[in-house]
Design goal:
Layout lengths: L15 H7 L7 H7 L9 H12 L6 E7 L3 E7 L6 H14 L6 H5 L2 H9 L5 E4 L2 H9 L3 E5 L5 E4 L29 H11 L5 E8 L5 E8 L5 H12 L9 H8 L11 E3 L2 H10 L2 E5 L5 E4 L17 H30 L7 H11 L6 H21 L2 H22 L4 H15 L4 H21 L1 H17 L1 E2 L2 E2 L9 H4 L28 H8 L18
Antiparallel strand pairs: 1-2, 2-4, 3-5, 4-5, 6-7, 7-9, 8-10, 9-10, 11-12
Length: 553
């Protein structure tokens, strides 16, 4: 077998005269020229092809056309962008073997077709293909590949010489864990796919690629495990991606906004992650992973709400400790949503529900504050959001100092001046800490947004307003779908097997099935022997009563 991949000739070869007629005016944009000449292909005369490429790429100062000869008098040329390629690879594995042919007098090579000789006896670069369409050749050049054309040969040789500087694989900034892997995705798709392949060395892993974006031609990878994923889910993902027609896709977030089910919901219906181990875990459950070249985030779909307060660390520690931590994380999530509105409702409408001693302390702290509680909470919430955004955008060295100054100095000065009561500062501080405890940033952002209408409803209707707001939020969440999967699964609709890994996590050996909501063809992930042995009493081999090594002493 040959290491080259071939494409069938899709168009007839274009003569030089036809090629010159197809080139429009010089001031036409390159993408319009390529759109008008979709059927243009490599001609038998080299200069006509070079002229066409020069009219599209020749205005770039960093575009190189390197001319040379093979067999002493056979013109050839390589075209590339030097800042996008590995020059050493080009010199050692492409130019050098080609130029050495000019010093050989091989009658057999002369009698054999040029294309066959170059393919079988000369070129030994590990990655390459042949191409006849001129638009495909130009697209390959701007992507960092090298194009080789030989006079008289109606095929161009495309070499994968792309080499772009990249950052090192480091620990993800947004999903740090105490116990777990320390590697995260980077911007280069090839490296990200290698991280997935490294953790999933199975022939069932499927990676399909497509290009989205009229200008950027961004490469998108659809990853799934054949035999585990539902084929209907893969088809739906391809269908939604194929409907996207946009100038450019610069990040995975662009795709998320196009393929989600409800575009007007504050809740994210697609999860993103920087962690390869998390992506692999979801692949093995039957989900699909999307990667975009240039983005360090992977999209996980479909997604349910319970995934946003779970972490990779939940499956690395023992289930009793993890269940406690997960419940505390869920409590913090609920606090971050309803704590300010509950405070406003109790202070403004239902002070009789507060214990007497605490009510006296709260009344003393609010003495002299000129604003009602609802305005006071809204001012503090807006101030905290502004402070949080300023801390996030400033350089790291300055951001930490700003957060300390904002919380301590400004907060204390506001209390001392009588604008804000001390209890309000405590409530907003606890709410902010609760939002930080939510692992997923986009889910925490949705809860931060919903706090404001809840505070306004509580300021107008009291506890009734809080309940109305929570009912509306719950009803909206019940109506959401992620690729057809109910957003609150497995709670609604109820599924006992799924509930083992929702509010708390039961032992791994007690969860032998994959999530039923994904309707996977192979729903068994734990062998019967493992499950039976895990439920049995342990065999204490080294127990003193059973060990007879020192029985004679």
């Amino acid at each position: 077998m040959t290491i080259w991949s071939w494409k069938k000739l899709r168009t007839k070869h274009t003569s030089p005269s036809q090629l010159s007629r197809m080139v429009p005016l010089k001031n036409s944009p390159a993408h319009q020229v390529m759109e008008a000449n979709k059927e243009a292909s490599v001609g038998t005369q080299l200069e006509a092809t070079i002229s066409y490429v020069q009219k599209l790429l020749g205005d770039n100062d960093d575009f190189i056309i390197r001319r040379f000869c093979i067999f002493q008098d056979q013109p050839a040329v390589v075209m590339y962008f030097p800042d996008l390629i590995d020059k050493q690879y080009l010199n050692d594995y492409i130019l050098k073997p080609l130029m050495l042919t000019s010093s050989q007098d091989d009658a057999q090579a002369v009698n054999r077709p040029m294309k066959e000789y170059l393919l079988n006896d000369t070129l030994y670069a590990c990655e390459g293909r042949t191409e006849t369409g001129l638009n495909e050749i130009i697209q390959a050049i701007v992507e960092g590949k090298t194009a080789l054309l030989v006079d008289g040969v109606t095929d161009a040789f495309i070499f994968s010489t792309r080499h772009v500087d990249k950052r090192a694989i480091t620990q993800p900034e947004t999903e740090q864990v105490i116990r777990g892997a320390r590697e995260g995705f980077i911007e280069i798709m090839g490296t990200n796919l290698a991280l997935l392949r490294y953790r999933l060395p199975t022939p069932d892993l499927r990676i399909k690629t497509m290009r989205i974006g009229r200008i950027t031609k961004s490469k998108v990878a659809i990853c799934y495990i054949d035999g585990i994923v539902n084929p209907a889910l893969v088809e739906e993902v391809f269908r939604r991606l194929s409907l996207i027609d946009i100038d450019g896709v610069l990040d995975a977030g662009y795709l998320e906004q196009f393929i989600e089910d409800n575009h007007f919901s504050p809740f994210p219906q697609i999860q993103n992650t920087e962690r390869p181990d998390k992506a692999v875990a979801n692949l093995m459950e039957g989900r699909v992973i999307l990667l975009v070249d240039g983005s360090p985030f992977a999209l996980i779909l479909p997604t349910v709400f319970s995934q946003f307060y779970q972490t990779v660390e939940d499956y690395s520690e023992r289930f009793i400790l993890v269940s406690f931590i997960r419940l505390s994380r869920l409590v913090a999530l609920i606090f971050s949503l309803i704590f300010p509105s509950l405070y406003v409702a109790l202070i403004s409408f239902n002070p009789e529900l507060i214990p007497t001693e605490f009510a006296v302390a709260v009344a003393g702290g609010r003495a002299g504050v000129p604003f009602p509680s609802v305005i006071e909470v809204l001012i503090m919430e807006i101030s905290m959001e502004v402070l949080r955004e300023a801390t996030l955008r400033l350089p790291q060295q300055v951001g930490g100092a700003l957060s300390i100054v904002g919380v301590l100095v400004v907060g204390q000065a506001a209390v001392a001046a009588g604008f804000i009561s001390p209890i309000t500062v405590v409530i907003i501080a606890l709410t902010t800490i609760g939002s930080f405890a939510t692992p997923a940033y986009n889910a925490a952002l949705a809860l931060r947004l919903l706090r404001f209408p809840l505070v306004i409803l509580s300021g107008i209707f009291g506890l009734y307003g809080v309940m109305i707001g929570l009912i509306l939020i719950t009803n909206h969440m019940l109506s959401l779908r992620s690729f057809g999967v109910p957003y609150l699964s497995p709670l609604v609709p109820g599924n006992f097997q799924g509930m083992k890994d929702t509010l708390a996590r039961l032992p791994l050996w007690s969860m032998p099935k994959r999530p039923s909501l994904l309707y996977t063809p192979n729903d068994t992930r734990l062998g019967n022997i493992t499950q039976e042995k895990s439920e049995e009493a342990p065999n204490n081999t080294l127990e003193p009563k059973k060990s007879d090594i020192h029985g004679g002493t």
